[in-house]
Amino acid sequence: MAIHYNRENKTFTLSTKNTSYQMKVDTYGVLIHTYYGESVGDADMSYLIDLRDSGFSGNIYEAGNKRDYSLDTLPQEYSSSGVGDYRITSVSVRNPDGSDAVDLRYDSFEIVPGKYDIPGLPALYGGAEDADTLKITMKDRVTGLCAVLYYSVWEKQDIITRSVRFYNGNEKPVILKKAVSMNLDLMHGQWELMHFHGRHCMERQLERIPVMSGKMEVRSTRASSSHHHNPFAILCAPETTEMAGPCYGVGLVYSGNYSIQVEKDQMNQVRLTAGIAKELFTWQLDPGAEFCTPEAVMTFSGEGLGRLSSNFHHIVREHLCRGKYKHERRPVLINNWEATYFDFNSEKILEIAKGAADLGVEMLVLDDGWFGKRDDDTSGLGDWFVNEKKLPGGLAPLVEQVNALGLKFGLWFEPEAVSEDSDLYRAHPDWAIHIPERRPNRSRYQLILDMSRQDVRDYLYERICAILDSANIEYVKWDMNRNISDVYSTNLPKERQGEVCHRYMLGLYELLEKLVTRYPDVLWEGCSGGGGRFDLGMMYYYPQIWCSDDTDALERIRIQYGTSFCYPISTVGSHVSAVPNHQTGRITPLSARGIVAMAGSFGYELDLNLLSEEEKEEVKEQIRSFKKYYNLTHEGEYYRLTNPWENQLYAAWEFVSQDQTEALICGVQMLAQPNSPSQHIPVRGLDPQKQYEINGNGQILSGRALMGGGLNFPRQEGDCMPVEFYLKEKK
Question: Do domains 3-319 and 650-729 have the same CATH topology?
């Protein structure tokens, strides 16, 4: 078993293939954190704790005159609040007596095989052969508040997951004001924070900054994980690179308001926490009631950022994503949005479908505008009834004709939003999130339905099922095109208004679970203005998420680069779009657009009928290549070969099969230069002993030689020129 308790020294050691995580119950029942890093066996690492008298760091009463014992300087597993630790807190409460103090001390533990579940929340899944679970019960002996710390250890994947379950053992309600999912205290080292910020159409841009004295925070209070920050962060040493150096990664399996905080204290210790943001959050915990925090996924790598990413990629693919398309090849699709926008009818959609079918496309997706009075983005949301002026007879005749062409059919929804100009809003204005007596903030002329309400969820379930049952629909794109403001639910009492944002997410997850269970053969794709909810929580329901509304190939290189630090390529929705690009106006060769989109779930976002005959032949070849390399790109190891923010001339990335018998190296010359120096592409992940043929041209080199020398980037004229090397073992 990967979890060991030493009764003699009261240490818990969580062991994975390459790492050790350890905590210890001390003399006073405080659960102290002793170590997380490279494997150290069963050694008691508490020798690293250097107790000393630190001015203005108080001492717990039980310590007597021991002035060197302070919660303010001790590394802890889950920090209390209001009792002497002045750093970032793990939990904050309002007790029945009006006080805010919570003092959690060790009570008991249990070790069980398999992975824990979190009621109502997405989480990694696995059986006894995959993971072991440690439950440590902490208790405030004055108030009766209990916190059960859950740890699941994924030995093979070097992954540890964490969650906390609170229980109110008091006879009166307790108000949770903050409850994070994990706390990690690092006693030594210099660290840098890597986080992934951005904006709509430019998500997950990498920023790497030194951890300075004081507090740093990555968060969203938009009731969505957001385009602007991502619920994933890395702490790494200054010397850490892709291939070497220590680094810690943490990702939240959550799609709502979150906070990842880092604090460097007066002793140069660093505390990292991750969980629900404290803004717009309170939770009334009634006597006997429970509250569960979202799951945090952690990993440590002593071999650089590439290994850290690989750990996340494996665990997400195998133990977070679910369903038919977890491993099955996704169909090559064409989406009509950039071809038609709202201006379409059955004939126009069929024309696009016929042209796409001739080129090898496998699915047509009908985007926004097929329902209600939806001729622009000011009306119709919420009225999930087919607009028969555009689609006579409903969806069934169109779907049948599309299917007859050999294409599957998919459909766009935006169920969480409502237009004021809609029959639904006119019938149920109270279903929209708003504050009574205030005019709500609009975004894209739409409001948000209150997903915390059962009647709202029931309506959406009924209408979505009616649509999906009306025709052979095999794909759903689930969009969400605004953030939530004016947070209030007319369905909750005033003392529970702080619960709205979290209840919204619980409601959304409940609805999604019902739908994916009822339609297990449907391919579900998430979207939120592109990548505004690209997070581990949504990946529990969707095996792929639209990565960004920015479909420009050069911009996508940078977006997909940042995305890859946590999320596997198999989760990335990526298409070949029209030129001039609708976001940037840039004209990029079809070949470059194709090679960038192939680093994702491949498809097209244009009218293929408008292409030249030469371009159509190129599309056919792109589709053949995608199918040929699918297992390699979606199941293989992914390597970032260049940083497109540092190297403005070219970008390159690599896929290597799990058995190391083949590899695909892709790149784009972003900027052409006259009389340019030779550009070099590093190669990684090969078997040094194997011999590889390059592009089937008869040139054979060992894995050792290729990884030592790399490849020369071919000289090409023009910006945005693609490069591809296929390496195949030659026996």
Answer: no
Q: Is domain 650-729 given the CATH code 2.60.40.1180 in the classification?
A: yes
Tell me the per-residue pLDDT of 259-277, one tens digit each, with 9 for 90 and over. Answer: 999 999 999 999 999 999 9
608: left (phi over 0), alpha (psi -120 to 50) or beta: alpha
Three-state SS at 289: coil
Residue bearing tokens 């209408």? 463
Domain ranges for the chain, please list them. 3-319, 650-729
Enumerate the active-site residues. 535, 615
- Closest to 138 (Cα-Cα) out of 86, 88, 173, 179: 179
At position 87, the amino acid (one-letter code) is: R
| Distance between CA atoms of residues 228 and 210, nearest Å | 20
581 three-state secondary structure: coil
User: How do beta strands 232-236 and 247-253 pair?
Assistant: antiparallel
Domain 3-319 has CATH 3.30.930.10: no
pTM for this prediction: 0.97
Res 619: pLDDT: 98
Please name every residue paired with 575 in a beta bridge, in sequence order, or none if there are none.
603
∠ CA 312-651-612, rounded to 5°: 110
Using DSSP, state whether 299 is helix, strand or coil.
Answer: strand
Instruction: Please determine, for residue 675, whether its predicted confidence score (pLDDT) is greater than 90.
Output: no
With CA atoms as reference, report the closest residue to 201 among 650, 582, 643.
Answer: 582
